[in-house]
Design a protein that fits this description.
Blueprint lengths: L15 E5 L4 E2 L2 E3 L6 E3 L7 E5 H8 L1 H19 L1
Bound molecules: zinc ion.
The site of zinc ion has 8 residues, from loops.
């Protein structure tokens, strides 16, 4: 059996996701009390925005960041050689 390639973001475009402005990525969150406040499980701040994947991606330009990340990683790989 072939193994599927696991993408970092594998949710549907219309699904609600949480984006931590401190981690600068999609994160898991914990809800704080009854208000619509969510705490990032990764860095523990409440600097979390949420919305559909489509809107969050567009607003924070995640696609561009991913591209930059990949570019930086590929450059690193070249440096190692
Ligand atoms: Zn965070």
């Amino acid at each position: 059996m072939e193994q599927e390639v696991v993408e970092s973001i594998q949710v549907e475009p219309g699904k609600v996701v949480f984006y931590c402005k401190d981690c600068e990525e999609l994160v898991d969150t914990e809800r704080c009390g009854r208000k619509y406040v969510y705490r990032c499980k990764k860095c523990d701040t409440k600097n979390v925005a949420f919305g559909t994947l489509k809107s969050v991606r567009g607003f924070f330009r995640l696609d561009e960041k991913e591209k930059q990340k990949r570019k930086a990683e590929s450059q690193k790989a070249v440096e190692k050689k």
